[in-house]
Amino acid sequence: MTAQTEPTQAPDLLYSEAEEDLRAAVRSLLADRADAPTVIAGTESDTPYDAQLWKALAADIGAAGLLVPEKLGGQGATHREAAVVVEELGRSVAPAPYLTSSVVATETLLALGAQDGPVGGLLAELAAGRKVAVLAVPFSAAASDTPVVTGSLEGTLGPVADAAAADVLLVPTTDGLYAVAADAPGVAVQPLVPLDLTRPLATVTLTGAAGTRLADAGATRPAVDRGLLAGAGLLASEQLGLAEWCLTETVRHTRERHQFNRPVGSFQSLKHRMAQLWLEVVSARAAARNAADALATSSPDAPLAVAVAQAYCSKVAVHAAEECVQLHGGIGMTWEHPAHLYLKRAKADANAFGTAGRHRETVAALMELPAP
Amino acid sequence: MTAPDAAELRRLTRELLAAHPPATTDPTDFLKARFDAGLAWVHYPAGLGGLDAPRSLQPVVDAELAAANAPDNDPRRIGIGLGMAAPTILGFGTDEQKQRFLRPLWVGEEVWCQLFSEPGAGSDLAALGTRAVRDGEDWVVDGQKVWTSSAHVARWAILIARTDPDVPKHRGISYFICDMTDPGVEVRPLRQITGEAEFNEVFLTGVRIPDSRRLGAVGEGWKVAQTTLMNERVSIGGSRIPREGGMIGPIARTWRERPELRTHDLHQRLLTLWVEAEVARLAGERLRQQLVAGQPGPEGSGMKLAFARLNQEISGLEVELLGDDGLLYSDWTMRRPDHVDFTGRDAGYRYLRSKGNSIEGGTSEVLLNIVAERVLGLPAEPRNDKDVAWKDLSR
Q1: Are residues B131 and B228 in the same domain?
Q2: Residue of chain B minimizing CA distance to A360
Q3: A12 to chain B: which residues are within 8 Å by CB?
Q4: Residue B41 and residue B150 in one domain
Q5: Chain A residues close to B382, C-beta within 8 Å
Q6: Of A13, A106, B118, B304, which has the highest C-beta tally within 10 A?
Q7: What are chain A's domains?
């Protein structure tokens, strides 16, 4: 037995100029349409998603089609570019079904390898931003523990992230992968009260629903695993963007906030905590870029790169958000200040696509570091 | 003359190898010839071991020489000279000083050490109290320095000493080159936590240094020392670190080879540290790629912090994992190792030696301040030492 060997080609851990341009476009859009008061107000409204924001992001910027080949109407880009979009969405915690639809559902469909037929048609719709699809599995599911319902499309699934925004549910069953219209008879999408207000969750109940079979049982498992692997890998970029926002805002606040006749950010006990956080964010960036690059290049190292990124970045995002609340003092505990949105997103993200502990188990298996 | 490109450097290197075949040339003679050909450090000026070429072309020369089995100057033995003394002499030395010191320094004929830290001036180095008093054409130096590696084999030292106690601490320091063979220089081994002595204490009693061996202006020593200290920062940028390349390697191998030691608690802690070590490696790799792309970021300031903590935690876990074997230590005999070895010997040694990683070259606490103030822009703590004459500081 030998542990997974390292690829000879070093991963590209930097951002290209095109990636920085894409970041600037997404960031500018989010600054216009999803500032903190807007996001907070949205979470308490009947429409948690901003349809105009989604159209601008998905269709006008073309972010929804980044992973989809050009001949299917996509941008023919890679996970590296999609990771930059996810990073900016994490920085703003705006509700948008990007990670669920444009990454996980899209990657699952792409992994089926079909260029035409219903799969190709659905991919074109997703790439153009005309439709939203989500994989009907619990948001906590990691690759390889995909639960499946029976072949007759019967059962209750959840909590499914962004199901309320979905036009199409991708349902893995014992009989294969089905595309089920969210408004079809026999489909009930029941919203839940989520810990993370900015990523709506729902229970999906199927009672003899009809759907289109996209893949047989044998092809379903690897495709769903690949979708969840991409989701976990790019979630690290969301956690990075989120953590960086928390650090930036905490530094800003502690420079401005005066107590004891000095900025509180001049106290060493606080400075050291922020410097430590900076180091974690710098490290998270390397881990997240490594995962995105490994997915983009279909590296055999991708499962390890994703597991390492998730095992690390989940903790960093939660730590950054917790420090953000604490170092903001009283204002950080209010509903008015956005810190709580970041704490809730960070804490929920840590359970998404498998916990850090779950990903450490994957590291143990891949690196031949077995449990007793 | 324009600076040579890679092809020209390759040609010059082959010319050197043809004129001085490594197999039949005395190693020191070869190194002298390499220096005189300008192939020692190509970014240095012509006549001082270089050719005014871009620093990034040095690997071209090194690769040619390595392929020909040419001798090197054992950089680990002369690291202080190469990394700290040489850039300072180049930046602040007179022409005579550059001509006199750089060639034997690079060739390795003369080893250098650094007389900076004192028992009373560690993190607050600018508070140092070693005095240099002018006496005719000489300076007379009295004081004590500490944590001096290579002092027992060094021919020369870079030294900072107080020349004016009546001005604030940063302004009364001057920078000298000290002859370690002067009778007033006494070197004593400083036995450390591991049982051996990598470092020394150096006692300076009436040491006479001619004014011609001053570097930079009188009172400007702190500014000159910044050049030295900037070059002390760990230079990442060489080669890619392999996975499990650092302190995590030995413990991972032990885990695989000795299943009888495994417990669930140790497993969880090992995996957490394995992930953190892999991420630190990737962060170092990202920094390396930034440097290669010509976009150096502030990330470098953080890498030493990360590796110090990881080295300590990993080696601590390794001692615990080893159980009965963790109760033993290889050898407490007082020795003088030739060079520092962070990952060598046994787990107990690694555990003890890595305690220094968060102290040497800037404590982790000071580095966190530097990150907070210079990278994040957080305000400095209020200070009461900036406008006070050195002689009036509390000590």
Answers
A1: yes
A2: B271
A3: 289
A4: no
A5: 262, 266
A6: A106
A7: 220-366 (1.20.140.10)
B264 and A CB contact within 8 Å = yes
Size of interface A-B (CB pairs under 8 A): 130
**Two tokens at A299?**
């590296």
User: Taking Cα atoms as reference points, which of A199, A120, A186 lies closest to residue A159?
Assistant: A199
Domain-located, residue B145: yes
Q: Kindly state whether residues B134 and B226 are assigned to the same domain.
A: yes
B318 neighbourhood in chain A, CB within 8 Å = none
With CB atoms and an 8 Å threshold, state whether A272 touches B368: yes
- Cβ–Cβ under 8 Å, residues B215 and B92: yes
Task: Give the nearest chain A residue to B288 (CA atoms).
Answer: A13
pTM above 0.80, yes or no: yes
For chain B, report the end-to-end CA distance as a whole number of angstroms: 55
Is B223 found in the same domain as B285?
A: no
Is B64 among the catalytic positions?
A: no
**How far is A268 from chain B, CA to nearest CA, in Å?**
7
Residue A271 with chain B: CB contacts under 8 Å: 368-369, 372-373, 376, 378
* B165 part of a folded domain: yes
Number of domains present in the structure of chain B: 3
Catalytic residue among B220, B232, B244, B360: B232
Per-residue pLDDT for chain B (395 aa), expressed as one digit of tens each?
578 999 999 999 999 999 999 999 999 999 999 999 999 999 999 999 999 998 888 889 999 999 999 999 998 889 899 989 999 999 999 999 999 999 999 999 999 999 999 999 999 999 999 999 999 999 999 999 999 999 999 999 999 999 999 999 999 999 999 999 999 999 999 999 999 999 999 999 999 999 999 999 999 999 999 887 776 554 434 567 899 999 999 999 999 999 999 999 999 999 999 999 999 999 999 988 888 787 777 777 788 999 999 999 999 999 999 999 999 999 999 999 877 777 778 999 999 999 999 999 889 999 999 999 999 999 999 999 989 999 999 98
The interface predicted TM-score (ipTM) is 0.96
| Interchain pair B283, A283: CB under 8 A | yes
CA distance B219 to B161: 10
Q: In terms of domains, do B227 and B256 share one?
A: no
Residue B379: inside a domain, yes or no?
Answer: no
Question: Is A287 in contact with B368 (Cβ distance < 8 A)?
Answer: no
